[in-house]
C-alpha cells in the first residue's frame, strides 16, 4: 500500500497494487504540478517518485509485467512531450538519463545480489554462490 502525497488542500491519494494504474499515477502527477512545470521537473518527478512506486508494487516481475510497465513509462513521456513518436520518446529518455524498465530491474537485482554476497550473515552466505552466478548472468546481458 502506498500513500502519494498531495498538497494540504486536497486529500492524500491511497494507492494499492489493485488500483495502481497509469491513470492514477498520471492524474495525481498532473493534479499536483499541472501543465505549468517544465519537462525537466516532470521527468525528475517521474524518475524519482513514480517509477520506484511502480517497481516496488510490481515485485516479482515477469516478462509481461515488465512490458506493461515500459508501456506505462512510454505513455507518460508521450503525454509529457506531447508526441506520438516512439523515436522522440527514446531520444528524450536518453537526454534525461531515463533508463528502460528492464535496465532498472536488472540494476536493482544486481544491487540486491551484491549486498547478499557481501553480507556477513550466515544465512546469506548459504546463498552466496547462487547469488554470484546470478550476478554473472546479469552482467553478461
What's the arrangement of secondary structure elements?
Elements: E1 2-4, E2 13-15, H1 22-33, H2 39-57, H3 63-81, H4 86-96, H5 101-118, H6 122-126, H7 128-140
Antiparallel strand pairs: 1-2
Helix pairs in contact: 2-3, 3-4, 5-7
Descriptive overview:
The protein has 141 residues and is mainly alpha-helical. The chain has two domains: 2-98, no CATH class; 100-141, no CATH class. It has seven helices and two strands, in the order ββααααααα. The chain has helices at residues 22-33, 39-57, 63-81, 86-96, 101-118, 122-126, 128-140, and strands spanning 2-4, 13-15. The chain has a two-stranded antiparallel sheet with strand order 1-2. A hairpin with an 8-residue loop joins strand 1 (2-4) and strand 2. Helix 2 (39-57) packs antiparallel against helix 3 (63-81), helix 3 (63-81) crosses helix 4 and helix 5 packs antiparallel against helix 7 (128-140). The longest helix has 19 residues, at 39-57. Mean pLDDT is 77; it is low at 1-19.
- Give the total of beta strands: 2
Distance between the termini: 32 Å
Instruction: Supply the number of helical segments.
Output: 7
Number of domains: 2
Q: What overall form do the CA principal axes indicate?
A: elongated
Structural class: mainly alpha
Helix content: 55-70%
Assembly level: single chain
| Parts with pLDDT < 50 across at least 5 consecutive residues | 1-19
The fraction of residues in strands falls at under 5%
| Rg estimate, integer Å | 18 Å
Largest sheet properties: 2 strands, antiparallel
In the sheet with the most strands, the strands line up as 1-2
Q: What string, H for helix and E for strand, traces the elements in order?
A: EEHHHHHHH
Average residue-wise pLDDT: 77
Amino acid at each position: 500500500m502506498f500513500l502519494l502525497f498531495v498538497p494540504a488542500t486536497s486529500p492524500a491519494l491511497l494507492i494499492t497494487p489493485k488500483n495502481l494504474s497509469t491513470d492514477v499515477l498520471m492524474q495525481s502527477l498532473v493534479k499536483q504540478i499541472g501543465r505549468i512545470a517544465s519537462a525537466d521537473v516532470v521527468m525528475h518527478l517521474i524518475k524519482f517518485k513514480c517509477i520506484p512506486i511502480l517497481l516496488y508494487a510490481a515485485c516479482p516481475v515477469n516478462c509481461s509485467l515488465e512490458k506493461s510497465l515500459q508501456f506505462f513509462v512510454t505513455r507518460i513521456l508521450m503525454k509529457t512531450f506531447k508526441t506520438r513518436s516512439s523515436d522522440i520518446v527514446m531520444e528524450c529518455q536518453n537526454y534525461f538519463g531515463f533508463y528502460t524498465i528492464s535496465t532498472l530491474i536488472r540494476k536493482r537485482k544486481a544491487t540486491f545480489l551484491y549486498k547478499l554476497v557481501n553480507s556477513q550473515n550466515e544465512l546469506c552466505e548459504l546463498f552466496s554462490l547462487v547469488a554470484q552466478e546470478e550476478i554473472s548472468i546479469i552482467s553478461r546481458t
